[in-house]
Amino acid sequence: MTTKPFKIFATSSALSLGTAIARELGQQLGNLHCETFSDGEKFVSFGESIRGRIVFLVAQINMPYENLFELFLAIDAARRASAEQVIAVLPYLPHSRQERKGSMRTAIASRLVADLMQQAGADRVITLDLHTGSIEGFFKIPVDHLFMGQIYIQHLESLALPNLCLCSPDFGGLKRIKLYKQQLNCDMAVIHKERLIPNQVSHMEIIGDVAGKHVVIVDDLIDTAGTICTAADLIMEKGAASVRAYCTHAIFSSNAIQRINDSALEKVYVSDTVNYIKTDGKIEVVSCSPLIAEVIRRMLENGSLMEIANFGV
């Protein structure tokens, strides 16, 4: 391991993931004190010296917004405590679906999140499976954009499903599916859907043959689970032998978990990029901690991240 001095800390919403990452690196999670006062204000302080050290701040900043603000406070505290470098480890970036103006008089929320994070003092960001890669361009600091792809591929291979068919839930996910296909050498399909309003699909159809095949839907996130459950039901109606899903970010808003358990989906594999994962029924977690730990290890040793970025962990 490198001799560069570093410490790993986690905000209050990411203690479990932070501990897992630190354990992968043979380290103890650092002492970061996070408190909420009676009036709702957040307070953050480091319980040990970080002067001259590289600080990795692990944060799961999905809703509520206090998780995001706690991260800003932790970054600012690290800067004021003379950390040499502050690296924000953010497996999930909120507002990643608001990367452009969908209509007049609207904000570009993902750009605002990037601006605030940099203003707080972050030197670098490590994140996973951005909804849109163009979000990297909102940052003036380095962004290490990682993918769960290789970990999911290895997991999928362990299932040894015959007559496998990968399915993208939309045309935007075709690039992701092709990367899986290169290693799995299997059939693929794509779902064409029309949306009238956010989170509500008015029409859906499958392009490709799924009859008699074990179909695996691959996507970056599940929110209300309406689309993926409707897609799974449609796939089974078209004669598929079974349908599963691999999705990185388990947002699970509204009654998403109930929808999944009531759907034709046999299993849904998600990662622990957000701090609310309920592993019951059909949902199983495949942790991102080994991937993040490997990235940190290579970063400290000035090693290449190219293999990881290209599904080559």
UniProtKB/TrEMBL annotation:
Keyword field: ATP-binding, Kinase, Magnesium, Metal-binding, Nucleotide biosynthesis, Nucleotide-binding, Transferase
Database matches in Gene3D superfamilies: 3.40.50.2020
**What GO cellular-component annotations does this UniProt entry give?**
cytoplasm; ribose phosphate diphosphokinase complex
Instruction: Tell whether Kinase is among the UniProt keywords.
Output: yes
The record ties this protein, via InterPro entries, to: Pribosyltran_N, PRTase-like, PRTase_dom, Rib-P_diPkinase
**NCBIfam families under this entry?**
PRK01259.1 (NF002320), ribP_PPkin (TIGR01251)
Protein name per Swiss-Prot or TrEMBL: ribose-phosphate diphosphokinase
Organism field: Cesiribacter andamanensis AMV16
